[in-house]
Write a structure and sequence with these properties.
The structure is a homodimer. In chain A, about 35% of the residues lie in helices and about 20% in strands. By secondary structure, chain A is an alpha+beta fold. Chain A folds into two domains: about 80 residues, Arc Repressor Mutant, subunit A, CATH 1.10.10; about 50 residues, 2-Layer Sandwich (Dna Ligase, domain 1). In chain A, the strands form two sheets. Chain A has a three-stranded mixed sheet with strand order 4-3-5. Chain A has a two-stranded antiparallel ribbon with strand order 1-2. In chain A, helix 1 packs across helix 2 and helix 3 crosses helix 4. The longest helix of chain A has 13 residues. The two termini of chain A are about 30 Å apart. At the A-B interface, strand 4 and strand 5 of A face strand 4 and strand 5 of B. The complex binds manganese (II) ion (MN) (2 copies) and zinc ion (ZN) (2 copies). One zinc ion (ZN) binds next to helix 5 of chain A. The site of one zinc ion (ZN) has 7 residues of chain B, from helix 5. The structure holds a DNA duplex.
Chain lengths: ~140, ~140
DNA sequence: TTGCATATTTGTAATGATTACATTTGTATT
DNA sequence: AATACAAATGTAATCATTACAAATATGCAA
């Protein structure tokens, strides 16, 4: 799953975003790493390649991505806004031990709460937390 | 649903928290209002009655409540940590129009994602957003 | 090609929520 | 009352995010 720069550019253009160097790099980071990073994590990594890269650009670009539905925000825990270029319906699991965030497929539509009968639902989010498989086997030794 | 000061005190004692005046007031606020407030909202309201009340006390007390499982954190949106004294399993809906947060009963255990087979799940959160009933009828009316 | 309009990026300062920490106040016990 | 301990307070520090103005890049007309 490593799309070429051309494919990334196409992706941006499809959402009416001009594919600047910075935007390509940021979206490339999101779609290849798939690690639900914070703005700071993206910056720390990309600034190695683009020393002039500003944190403001990271924030501006992510804001643009969110608005154009190219990415979405993940807020499992307070004080850390994370970003995900996978906008398909799926849940997130955060390991309290190692901090990793896992995706998982989930059929959210099964829930159908009666109490939200006449509500217009735009977004559905499912967040779990606990201890991941890796950390469990590590503990057991 | 307006518990007496005695009942609030009992509730605190049951969780091994000494029922100080401030703690009683903060817990009373949470259980009577049931509005998933931010720390600031709690402070703004209670400082009317307790002019000396410090924001630090709000934060310290809420932290204690979380640790003793007397309340839980709700993080629907970034940059606003909210608190809920209802620790039963239920989902939250936030209206993008009026900002209200609604509770809804939901049987989360139906989901059972295969991918989390050998994971230890400690917490499950379900957050929806959209437009609430009231705001829909307001728009139509 | 040059010059201009516009979009994008950058750097710095401001904001706002949360936390750290030292001081003060309250409570219980002797 | 004196002491010890817990809780509350006020202030300063931290940290993520945003605001804003200046610099840079891009696209196009002359
Ligand atoms: Mn994801
Ligand atoms: Mn609730
Ligand atoms: Zn783990
Ligand atoms: Zn509403």
């Amino acid at each position: 799953m490593t799309p070429s720069v051309e494919e990334i550019s196409e992706h941006l253009l499809k959402h009416n975003i001009k594919p600047s160097y910075q935007r390509i790099k940021i979206l490339e980071y999101l779609v290849t790493k798939r690690n639900h990073p914070t703005a700071d994590e993206i910056h720390k990594e990309l600034v190695k390649e683009i020393p002039s890269l500003s944190k403001t650009t990271i924030y501006n670009t992510l804001k643009t991505f969110i608005e154009t539905n190219l990415a979405r925000v993940i807020t499992i825990e307070e004080n850390e806004t994370r970003y995900d270029a996978d906008i398909s319906d799926h849940g997130h699991f955060k390991c309290d031990e190692c901090g990793s965030i896992y995706d998982f497929r989930v059929n959210i539509d099964i829930l159908e709460p009666d109490e939200l009968e006449s509500f217009k639902i735009n977004e559905k989010n499912v967040y779990y937390s606990g201890i991941c498989k890796k950390c469990i086997s590590k503990e057991e030794g």
